[in-house]
């Protein structure tokens, strides 16, 4: 059951409206050069085939996009970029800054390589780097006034955390690496502003399976825009003699018609707030707005060790995150974690080793009325507390969506969509546990399920062993 928050906060001047969604389907020919043409030039210099690509302007946004130059069957390799054309930590090692950056994390080495090569006429990466946005749209670069639109959101908390982390990272590097080696890291090219640009650029262009081990930027392949309803995806393949080399293939995930925009999903498992933070994008036609709830087992719990053992044996840890979506019930795994957190008193018999093989299955269903009541109470309090920090109510944001007034894809547009999605997910969570808490007697708990399994209780909840005594059997 959904419950709307009725005017929890009066809308302020910083809580603006959003624009309407649009599709990315029909395109027209591009008349002028753009970053995509630049990166196509880079591909030509590196002898990467691009005959299946064309550039056209999206009619709705007038933004240049890659489109299919011909009809493509599902599974077709639209383009292939060999590992020799990737930007990796190994690329940084072989560059002019190689001797300085070898001990840094791979993503940081790649970021510093972008700074070292940016604006260098003879650089083999100059075309690619010039195709990157000079002013990333990530919330990390939003003004204080724009960030006020995110007041109370999970996204704002993450933004502030990352800004602090990157600031501290820069300060340390400036003291230990940049200042002592100004010939390699001149102040006019390597400063706090340019460093922020570089790390944000790397963050926005990293995609699975090349976002962890190894970390690699893949020019051209990373130019496909994000859409939830993707028609292309990255595939890592072996190449070369004995398969020692690697190639990143962009494959069609379904049949693609000529002239159709080529799009990929930057994070199928990511919520919109994470996509906006990581890649500075949202899908205007199909969102996945929600809230990421992190549950942590309290270390001062009397049975902490036993509970942690149960979580670890079931692929979790002492802390786990769960995605909350509007209108969806909590996942069984989340309910199991919550019940384990609240497990106390007589219910703790489930922690005995005799239940080791079945305990997680038991926890994913109601354990007892007191346990379920404790879960509901904790979640209701938590959801209400989280909702109280937003700068507008759900109804107010929905009204802003209906009225429009903002440019689609603008920062104000994205901010309101994200904060509305977070609130709607929390509101669904609140409604679920309020409804559950009000009807605890209708649930079936462990003891009832156990008795039914032993044939000692029928489906109506009545015992089946009374007749033993009536008939003199026992």
Characteristic terms for this protein:
about 40% helix, 17 helices, elongated, alpha+beta, 3-stranded antiparallel sheet, about 10% strand, disordered N terminus
Number of E-type strands: 8
Please report the number of helical segments.
17
Backbone CA Rg: 27 Å
Helix and strand run: EHEEEHHHHHHHEEHEHEHHHHHHH
Mean pLDDT: 88
The helix fraction, in percent, is 25-40%
* Oligomerization category of the chains in this entry: single chain
In which order are the strands of the major sheet placed?
Answer: 1-2-3
Provide the β-strand percentage band: 5-15%
What separation lies between the terminal Cα atoms?
48 Å
Low-confidence stretches: 1-33
Principal-axis shape: elongated
């Amino acid at each position: 059951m959904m419950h709307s928050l009725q005017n929890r906060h009066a809308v302020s001047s910083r809580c603006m409206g959003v624009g309407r969604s649009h599709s990315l389907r029909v395109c027209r020919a591009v008349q002028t050069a753009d970053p995509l043409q630049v990166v196509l030039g880079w591909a030509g210099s590196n002898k990467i085939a691009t005959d299946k690509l064309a550039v056209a302007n999206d009619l709705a946004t007038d933004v240049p996009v890659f489109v299919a130059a011909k009809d493509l069957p599902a599974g077709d390799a639209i383009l292939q970029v060999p590992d020799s054309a990737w930007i990796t930590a190994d690329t940084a090692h072989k560059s002019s800054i190689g001797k300085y950056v070898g001990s840094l994390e791979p993503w940081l080495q790649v970021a510093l390589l972008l700074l070292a090569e940016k604006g260098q006429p003879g650089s083999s990466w100059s075309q690619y780097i010039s195709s990157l946005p000079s002013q990333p749209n990530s919330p990390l670069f939003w003004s204080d006034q724009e960030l006020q639109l995110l007041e109370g959101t999970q996204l704002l908390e993450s933004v502030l955390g990352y800004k602090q982390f990157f600031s501290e990272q820069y300060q340390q590097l400036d003291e230990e690496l940049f200042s002592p080696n100004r010939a390699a890291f001149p102040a006019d090219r390597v400063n706090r502003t340019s460093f922020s640009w570089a790390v944000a650029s790397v963050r926005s262009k990293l995609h699975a399976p090349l976002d962890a081990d190894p970390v690699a930027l893949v020019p051209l392949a990373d130019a496909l825009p994000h859409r939830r309803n993707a028609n292309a995806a990255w595939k890592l393949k072996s190449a070369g003699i004995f398969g020692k080399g690697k190639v990143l293939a962009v494959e069609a995930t379904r049949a693609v018609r000529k002239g159709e925009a080529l799009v990929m999903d930057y994070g199928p498992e990511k919520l919109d707030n994470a996509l906006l933070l990581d890649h500075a994008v949202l899908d205007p036609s199909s969102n996945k707005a929600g809230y990421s709830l992190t549950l942590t087992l309290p270390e001062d719990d009397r049975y902490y060790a036993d509970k942690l053992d149960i979580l670890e044996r079931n692929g979790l840890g002492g802390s786990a995150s769960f995605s909350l979506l509007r209108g969806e019930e909590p996942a069984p795994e989340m309910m199991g974690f919550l019940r384990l957190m609240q497990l106390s008193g007589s219910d703790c018999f489930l922690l005995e080793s005799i239940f080791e093989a079945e305990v997680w299955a038991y926890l994913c269903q109601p354990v007892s009325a007191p346990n379920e009541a404790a879960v509901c109470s904790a979640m209701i309090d938590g959801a209400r507390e989280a909702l109280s920090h937003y700068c507008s109510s759900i109804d107010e944001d929905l009204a802003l969506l209906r009225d429009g007034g903002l440019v689609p894809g603008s920062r104000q547009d994205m901010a309101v969509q994200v904060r509305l999605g977070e609130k709607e997910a929390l509101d669904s969570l609140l409604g679920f546990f309020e409804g559950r808490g009000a009807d605890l007697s209708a649930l079936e708990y462990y003891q009832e399920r156990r008795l039914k399994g032993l044939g000692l209780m029928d489906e109506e909840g009545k015992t089946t062993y009374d007749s033993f005594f009536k008939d003199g059997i026992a």
